[in-house]
UniProtKB/TrEMBL annotation:
Family listed: Belongs to the peptidase M20C family.
Identification of the protein by name: Cytosol non-specific dipeptidase
GO cellular component labels: cytosol
One MF term in the entry's GO annotations: metal ion binding
Source organism (scientific name): Croceibacter atlanticus (strain ATCC BAA-628 / JCM 21780 / CIP 108009 / IAM 15332 / KCTC 12090 / HTCC2559)
């Protein structure tokens, strides 16, 4: 199947994407892909360097006749989100992505595809290795750890880059030109609790929420998709209130930037309430499925008897925990009053782990307005601190403020229109976190723009990349490079 991917049109992009996807590249474990990219640049005889944090920079002189054009930074990130279906046997640390063609889409077998941002990386590789493409002086910037903190962009020192224009190839709609993005902050709530011996008159159950779509916690948050952690809390709270359910453990969600698709809880219920518990929970599960039948048609809630767990959570802390999760905002908090259909501020309750006397709740709060981001983060902090949690803010990164007068925007806008029979590109800010905001702090004079091919389901095993869109995007890249302004 790899050969089929390599021979898709445009071949220079898909060939490099297949090579890249053969290299394991989880966030914060990018050693192999960093070496892969350095070997690639050195093999081409191009100036190649790795900075202090692991970003790779490769420089290529202008093609003949383009020496008088401004130097362009072409930028994408090397890491990818790792998500897989529960029934998929796959080790992201050791295996390359297994891809296949489904009509106009390239997909992965039960895992994320890595088109975010692998197609951007592959595009830059294709430009670097070509001997025929017309282009200005190129400075390829491959950043690390975009998906779990943007530490690569944050660690890039001022003065390293020489380019005047940055092309960020990390947008997921081929008719969109990105001119701004949201900033974000990680909100982490933790606390400890005492474990109690489970009374003999209690029985054990496992509750599983699964089958949700998941997706990108920025780009997909506007869709109102189900959050497995919120669904699980709703079930647990109801059973606690009605039959005195006690919690042994919870394992829900995964990465901060992925809407949680699954959650599993092990609980205990008094024997005399077992039948009422199962009946009550099944009724509520049906209610939730009905509420979300359009958005989440594959939602499942499975309740099964298990061996009674030896310990349960302290009752007072359990009640506070359940009420805090119920109170904590998830989803869109505020829409932009200035840009139509743009989410201004949101939160994703991404990961909940509970067991062995410890609770941890991981959230990612995003906003294009710094004051609104702080407001929501403080609201979350308050909801958890009222129940005795310790709350920390970390990994904060700024948004990217639009510059509607930049020369590169005019080039992209004009070029897109000329290539698409007069059709106008959609110029927009997005609710995802792009590295442009951080890079703009280090290089405030650099003009920036973001664009890319159509990708669906990013950050989930349903991720897929459009073949026809990738061809359309590649033609835009080639033409834009020809139109870069003179110095």
């Amino acid at each position: 199947m790899s050969d089929i991917i390599r021979n898709l049109d445009p071949k220079p992009v898909w060939k490099n994407f297949a090579d890249l996807n053969a290299v394991p590249r989880p966030s914060k474990k990018e050693e192999r892909v960093i070496k892969f990219m350095k070997d690639f640049g050195e093999r081409l005889g191009l100036e190649t360097l790795e900075d202090e944090v692991g970003n790779v920079i490769i420089r290529k002189p202008a093609s003949k006749g383009m020496e008088d054009r401004k130097m362009v930074v072409m930028q994408s990130h090397l890491d990818m989100v790792h998500q897989k279906n529960n029934d998929t046997d796959f080790n992201f640390d050791t295996q390359g992505i297994e891809m296949y063609v489904d009509g106009d889409w390239v997909r992965a077998k039960g895992t994320t595809l890595g088109a975010d941002n692998g197609l951007g990386v592959a595009t830059i590789m294709a430009i670097l290795e070509s001997e025929t493409i017309v282009h200005p002086p190129i400075e390829a910037l491959f950043t690390i750890d975009e998906e779990t903190g943007m530490t690569g962009a944050q660690g890039l020192k001022p003065g390293v880059l020489q380019g005047e224009i940055l092309l960020n190839l990390d947008t997921e709609e081929d008719d969109e030109i990105g001119v701004g993005c949201a900033g974000g902050v990680d909100v982490t709530a933790t606390r400890t609790y005492n474990e109690e011996q489970t009374p003999e008159h209690m029985s054990g159950f496992k509750i599983t929420v699964k089958g949700l779509q998941g997706g990108h916690s920025g780009m997909d948050i506007i869709k109102g998709l189900g959050n497995a952690n919120k669904f699980m809390n709703r079930l647990l709270f109801d059973a606690y209130e009605n039959v005195g359910l006690r919690i042994h453990s919870i394992n829900g969600g995964s990465l901060r930037n992925a809407i949680p698709r699954e959650s599993v809880a092990e609980v205990a219920v008094e024997n005399i309430h077992k039948d009422a518990f199962e009946l009550e929970l099944n009724v509520l599960a049906t209610t939730i499925k009905t509420e979300y039948k359009t958005l989440e048609p594959e939602l499942e809630v499975v309740i099964e008897a298990i061996e009674t767990p030896e310990t349960i959570m302290d009752l007072g802390v359990q009640e506070g925990f359940l009420r805090s999760i119920y109170t904590a905002h998830n989803g869109v908090y505020r829409m932009s009053p200035d840009i139509e259909n743009l989410v201004e501020t949101s939160n994703n309750i991404a990961r909940i782990t509970l067991g062995n006397g410890e609770v941890e709740v991981l959230c990612l709060t995003r906003s294009s307005v710094e004051s609104s981001k702080t407001d929501l983060a403080n609201a979350l902090r308050a909801s958890f601190e009222l129940s005795g949690f310790v709350v920390e803010f970390s990994g904060e990164y700024p948004g990217w403020q639009p510059n509607m007068d930049s020369d590169i925007l005019k080039v992209l806008d004009k070029t897109y229109k000329s290539l698409n029979n007069g059709e106008q590109a959609h110029i927009a800010a997005c609710h995802a976190g792009l590295e442009c905001g951080i890079l703009g702090q280090h290089y405030p004079e650099m003009e920036m723009i973001s664009f890319g091919p159509t990708i669906r389901g990013a950050h989930s095993p349903d991720e897929r990349a459009s073949i026809s869109s990738t061809k359309k995007y590649w033609e835009l890249v080639l033409q834009v490079l020809k139109e870069i302004p003179i110095k």
